[in-house]
Amino acid sequence: YAIDLCRATRSAPGVRLGASPRAAIWLIRCAQAYAVLHGRDYVAPDHVKAVAAGCLAHRLLTDDGAGQAAQAVRSLLESTPSPRP
Known about the structure:
Blueprint: H1 2-9, E1 15-17, H2 21-37, H3 45-56, E2 61-62, H4 66-79
Antiparallel strand pairs: 1-2
Helix pairs in contact: 1-2, 2-3, 3-4
């Protein structure tokens, strides 16, 4: 799911430079940390969704800046189907 999200950033409207493979790795690591902080020993799609905007927005180069990057990530979360847990 994290890889699908990062791939989707590369073709998102208004995004000049999407998330790299390294961004996908750190998205997964952030989701793991979020899961541990919430008492889980596994990562669910909701954990990835919870950290995606904060983790990916600063890694995108957009036409209008950081505000548009966060909005692009949020719209990709809505349009990218999440796997069933």
